[in-house]
Automatic annotation (TrEMBL):
This is PSI domain-containing protein. Residues 161-172 have a biased composition (Basic and acidic residues). One of its GO terms (biological process) is protein import into nucleus. Keywords: Membrane, Signal, Transmembrane, Transmembrane helix. Residues 127-148, 153-172 are annotated as: Disordered. The chain crosses the membrane at residues 87-112. The keyword Membrane applies. It comes from the Eukaryota. GO terms for cellular component: cytoplasm; nucleus. Residues 1-23 form the signal peptide.
Length: 172
C-alpha cells in the first residue's frame, strides 16, 4: 500500500516537473540585464555580452555592429562566449569571401565549359568527321585499286607471288 502510494507520488511529481519544463521551455523571458554570466546572457540571441564590465546588454540592432560606446568589439561576445566579436566578424568575412570566391570560380568554369561545347566547336567537329570519312573512303579506294593492280601484275609475273616465291626461278 505504502509502496503504491509512493509510486503514485513519483509519477505525479514527474508529471508536474514535465509540465513545468514544458511551460518553461518555450519562453524563459528575461531581459538581458538580468544575466550575470556570458553563457546565460548569450542563451538569448538578442543579448550581447561585454567582457570589460561583465555586463549583458540588448544587442543594438539599430547598428549592424555593436558600437564601441556600448562595448569594444574585441571585448564583445555574441553567439558563443569563447570567441570575441571581432574574431567572429573576421571569421565570418573570411568564410563569406571563400564561399563567394568558390561560387565565382564555379560559375566561370561552367561558363567556359558551356562555351567550349557550344556551336562553333561542334561545327568544327562535324567538319573533321567528314574529312576523316572522305579520307577513309579514298584510302579504301586506293587499297582496292592497288589490290587489283597487284592481281594483274601477279598474273603476268611482274612481282613474285608470295605463295610461290621461287616459281619464277623455277620457270627460268
Ligand atoms: C531576450 O531579451 C530580450 C531583451 O531583453 C527580451 O525582450 C526577450 O524576451 C528575451 N527573450 C527570451 C527568449 O528570453
Ligand atoms: C559597460 O561598459 C560600457 C562602456 O564600455 C557602458 O556603456 C555600459 O553602460 C557598462 N555597463 C554596465 C552594466 O556597467
Amino acid at each position: 500500500m505504502l509502496k503504491r502510494s509512493s509510486g503514485c507520488a513519483v509519477v505525479v511529481a514527474l508529471l508536474v516537473a514535465a509540465a513545468a519544463a514544458l511551460s518553461a521551455t518555450p519562453a524563459p523571458k528575461a531581459p538581458c540585464k538580468t544575466f550575470t554570466t556570458c553563457d546565460s546572457c548569450l542563451s538569448n540571441v538578442s543579448c550581447l555580452w561585454c567582457q570589460t564590465n561583465l555586463s549583458c546588454t540588448e544587442y543594438p540592432v539599430a547598428h549592424l555592429l555593436p558600437p564601441a560606446s556600448i562595448c569594444p568589439l574585441s571585448e564583445a561576445r555574441w553567439g558563443v562566449c569563447w570567441v570575441n566579436f571581432e574574431a567572429l566578424i573576421i571569421a565570418m568575412a573570411v568564410v563569406g569571401g571563400v564561399l563567394l570566391l568558390g561560387i565565382t570560380v564555379c560559375c566561370c568554369c561552367c561558363c567556359c565549359r558551356c562555351r567550349r561545347s557550344s556551336r562553333p566547336d561542334r561545327v568544327e567537329e562535324e567538319y573533321a568527321r567528314r574529312r576523316e570519312e572522305i579520307k577513309q573512303r579514298s584510302d579504301d579506294r586506293k587499297a582496292e585499286r592497288r589490290a587489283r593492280h597487284d592481281e594483274i601484275r601477279k598474273k603476268y609475273g611482274l612481282i613474285p607471288d608470295s605463295d610461290h616465291p621461287y616459281s619464277r626461278f623455277e620457270n627460268e
